[in-house]
Amino acid sequence: MTGRKSGARQGSQRRIPQPLGVTPAPLRDLKEYVYELYVDAGTPSTQRMAEEIGQDDALPGSPSKATIHRIIGSTELPAGQEDVASVALLLARWAGRDPGKVATRVRRMWVAAQLAQPLGSPVVDLDPFALEVHRAISVPGDRSLPRLPAYVPRDHDAALGDLVDRATGGESLLVTLVGESSTGKTRACWEVLRRLPPGWRVWHPFDPTRPDAALVHLAEVGAQTVIWLNEIQHYLLAPDARTAEGIAAALRSLLTDRRRGPVLVLATIWPRFWEALTLPSATGADDRFEQQRKLLTGIGRCVVVPKAFTEHDLYRARQRAHHDPRLASALAGATDGEITQFLAGVPELMRRYLCAPPAEKALVHAAMDYRRLGHGPALPHELLAEAAEGYLKDQERGLRGGAWLEEALAYCAMPCHGVPGPLTPVASRSGTGQGRAYRLADYLEQYGRVERRLMCPPAPFWAAAERHCLTTDDSVTLARAAQTRGRLRIAASLYGRALKAGNTDVRPELGRLAEAVGDLDRAKDFYEAAWEDDRRARWELVRLRQLKGEPGRAEELAHEAANQGDSSSLTRLVRLRQEAGDEEGAQRLTRNAAATGKIRTYAGLARSREEAGDRHGAEELAFLALTQTGSTYALSDLVGLREKAGDGAAAERLVVAAAARGKVRPALRLAGVRRQAGDRAGAARALDLAADSGSIFALTELARLKRRWGDSEGAERFLGTAVRQGSVYALTELARLREKAGDRQAAVRLYRSAASYGSTDALAHLALLKEEEGEGEEAERMACGAAGGGSTFALLELSWLREKNSDSEGAERLAHTANRAGNSGALVLLARLREKSGDKSGAEALVLRAARAGDAQVLNEFVLRREKSGDSEGAERLAAAGGGRVLLQLARLWESDGRKPEAERLYQRAADLGRTRALGELARLKQQSGDHEAAGHHARAAAHAGHVEALSDLAHLCAQRGSLAEADRLYRLAVDAGHDASLPAWSTLRARTDPRWHDLPHYGLTAEGTLAGPWRFAPRRP
Predict the structure, then answer these.
(1) What would the pLDDT profile of 888-899 be if each residue is shown by its tens digit?
(2) Do 396 and 359 touch, CB atoms closer than 8 A?
(3) Nearest to 789 by CA among 746, 827, 754
(4) What are phi and psi of 645, to 5 degrees?
(5) In the predicted model, what is the mean pLDDT of residues 588-609?
(6) CA dihedral defined by 103, 107, 113, 116, rounded to 10 degrees?
(7) Which of 363, 515, 566, 697 has a 20 to 30 Å separation from 745 between CA atoms?
(8) Which class for 293: exposed (0-12), middle (13-18), buried (19 or more C-beta within 10 A)?
(9) Distance between CA atoms of 522 and 525, rounded to whole angstroms?
């Protein structure tokens, strides 16, 4: 019993899977340690372990087989310490470990796990204000009222409730409520917590900062946890892009890991942040928020919270107002149905701001500008006081009294009917050195982001930022804001402040600014300092050395980067030398790089040699990569290049050489290229080479091609070979071939065999066979089982059959089942059938359901169907149901067809529905029609909505028609609003009359907005 082999490999039990997603952390540590012992002991059977423990009186516990299985393989905390210790002691003996040390460690870990608390708090212990629910207005009278006013459920509450019910039913979900400030988003989340059953907890990550808390602790989130992400932009738009991306990735992993669920993420966000995070890059480049977009729109669900109450909402509010005078006051005083805003004190807050004296308003404007340009919520007293000077006119400064600042701050801090005033004092945070600080009211922050979007702050704003920014993150975000507004010297100063405070991530930006002003030595210093952490800086330094006439040093640095895992600098340097006509230098670098290059280095170098006509050198590099790294990446790339160049024989020669070395990927690459080109025989010939090497993928691909070409016998031969190699997919495909050949008995046998190995596709095919036998209920049961495993095609097929047999109710039932399983295609299929049969209203109802389920393309499809059939009215009606996005696309279609007046009407309608990008299209149309005043109006409206590029586009059109003064004004407006892409065009325009403006992209503008003269970085300290 003391030898390792006595316990190992005894019994026929399969290895117990390791428990994953265990929380909290102490329990995870215990589980990982016990599993490590289990593996080290040779994964013995639970029966053998139970027998050994039962026969050994020295072991303290007596666990059963089931208990041992739970101790090793479940995510739960084992109830008995003695049982855990016994299992660990036995495994330690068999693994040759010290039993005494193991027993002590396991007992301590068990106690720690027993005492550990999961993240979050029970719902009954929560405080709504700690979760950032807005406080409500106070009303006269001494009657005691609840802390929160009476709640009026609205349509978005029903949608939110349905999603929360799905979470409590076992599905992990992210639900984001999108709405303007003070529209009731956070209160709706608070109210829906009532639906949670006992055992659920709510975790609000905010300490020490929101992003840091989320990034560090998301891995510890356990099942039945609500993650409360109020104002999720603080997490997904964190100043550190890597932190924000890490949070998004961690949330995606959590939500898609069924072993850790169910988990519910409740988030709120303003529309402007939602649009920034969810709209893909227009050019496909620099997709900074790919992780965030996939989280919010790919996995998550969006619930829109409207600004105003509908008539029905108001009716229900009046019914509840009898018991709550705050709600009654809101009903009497709110305009346009904005009840929640009134309850949050917004009308009084806006009156306080709009009617404020000059000094008080200057403080608020400074706070608005700091927040909209990226400073954190806590605004230091000195920052606001110094910046406010720039917002006052000379006469206003002279009228101030000696105590103006304290009086102005007191005015701004005064509550508005019981809710916080424009600027609220906030407590200092330990470790920041923060003294007095203030927070701007949320509603005023949102108001300022829109109303002041086109304004560049005055010079004292930037001067105060250079001296009083609270954190390095604040300095960096304001530096970026200055940089995008052409205030390049200010940007350099703020980046320098952040660097001095320890933020080394800014070095590449400082390098680029130094290079722009011609200070190449300082640029080199910054790039060299950033070498270890930033691959972009590595290339910039390599490039700079090459341009300074130091090719040897450039080459050394490129090799050094490759040795650190970044091979891109090598290949880019080869291309840089080729572009400069230095073919000899490019070849020498290629040869030197080959000795130490990584996989992608070889591919890039081989491609460079191939494009330069050196085919022999390209092949040498590709095969060298295969020999030194084992990767066929470079070789496959070369095969594709030669096939696309029309030299199929050379491509096949490379494939044969790779196959002789046991590598099939080049053959698969060649087959793919040929299949896309329609060369069936050539694709089959390439796959034959891969199949000869035993590749299952090649065998199944060959079978697919043979089946498509009518050679069923050949297809079965290849599938049979794949089945003998253990492919369940090939087994299912073989069953399909037997079914198609009419051999039903063999097909059923093969399907059942594949299903027994876990193939849900095989189960789905069996369901369809049951339907053919007339056993509809059994067919539906099996199809639902297959859908539970991810294969929904049987549900789609059954839905189609029900519809064909005039069983509309059954068809919709199955379609909705498929939809709940994640496939809205069944709804779309039914919609097409009903559209074809003339039932347009029925089709539209299904289309809208599919759209609500997340099918982003179905509305586009049916709008185009209406349009192609000549039903433009129906197309517009359906597009409007999908909101401004689909209307915008239809408008573009109409414009391309020459229907400009109708397109203009649709653009306006799309803009009215919130698709503000349509305002830029309206500006363009108005400019083309000669209505320049209207064009300017729409361009400014688009810019106010966040599409500042509309100003630059209009400026370009004005310059083309000779309106240079108007173009100059619009370019300045665009730059002041943060559109740095306008700087080169503005520079070119102004340089027509003043050559000094050629330097604008290099030196930028002064803080006051005039053209900056040449400036340099401060001399380096010795």
Answers:
(1) 888 888 888 888
(2) yes
(3) 754
(4) -80, -5
(5) 61
(6) -140
(7) 697
(8) buried
(9) 5
Contact 7, 90 (CB under 8 A): yes
CA distance 286 to 701: 36
> Are 187 and 340 spatial neighbours (Cβ–Cβ below 8 Å)?
yes
- Across the range 127-154, mean pLDDT stands at 82
Distance CA 205, CA 809 (A): 46
Task: Identify the CA nearest to 978 among candidates 400, 350, 477, 607.
Answer: 477
Quick one: which of 940, 939, 893 has its CA closest to 920? 939
The answer to whether 700 touches 733, Cβ cutoff 8 Å, is yes
* Residues 573, 554 contacting (CB under 8 angstroms): yes
Q: Is 809 exposed, middle or buried (0-12, 13-18, 19+ CB in 10 A)?
A: exposed
Q: Is the pTM of this model over 0.70?
A: no
Ordered strands of the 437-440 beta sheet: 379-380, 437-440, 423-426
How far is the C-alpha of 241 from the C-alpha of 225, rounded, in Å? Answer: 26
What confidence tier does 739 reach under pLDDT thresholds 50, 70, 90? confident
Mean pLDDT of 987-1010: 94
The one-letter amino acid at 617? G
Is residue 718 pLDDT above 90, yes or no?
no
Q: Say which residue the tokens 């193939």 belong to.
A: 759
Say if CB 144 and CB 351 are below 8 A apart.
Answer: no
Q: Is the sign of the CA dihedral 643, 649, 653, 656 positive or negative?
A: positive
- pLDDT tens digits for range 257-298: 877 788 999 999 998 889 888 876 554 445 678 889 889 988
pLDDT digits (tens, 9 = 90+) for 966-975: 999 999 999 9
**Helices 633-644, 615-629: inter-axial angle, 10-degree rounding:** 150
Structure tokens at 113: 């796990």
Pure H helices in 882-963:
884-896, 900-912, 917-928, 932-944, 949-960
Containing 269, the helix (H) or strand (E) segment is strand 263-269
Residue type, 484: T
Query: Among the listed ranges 199-213, 500-514, 821-835, which one has the minimum average pLDDT value?
Result: 821-835
Q: How would you classify the pairing of strands 201-203 and 121-122? A: antiparallel
The sheet carrying 225-229 orders its strands as 121-122, 201-203, 225-229, 263-269, 173-178, 301-304
Residue 1: is its pLDDT beyond 50? no
CA–CA distance, 646 with 679 (Å, rounded to integer): 12
Q: Letter for the amino acid at 667? A: A
Positive or negative CA dihedral for 453, 455, 460, 463? positive
pLDDT at 309: 94
- Looking at residue 711, the DSSP 8-state letter turns out to be -
> By three-state DSSP, how is residue 842 classified?
helix
How large is the C-alpha radius of gyration of the chain? 34
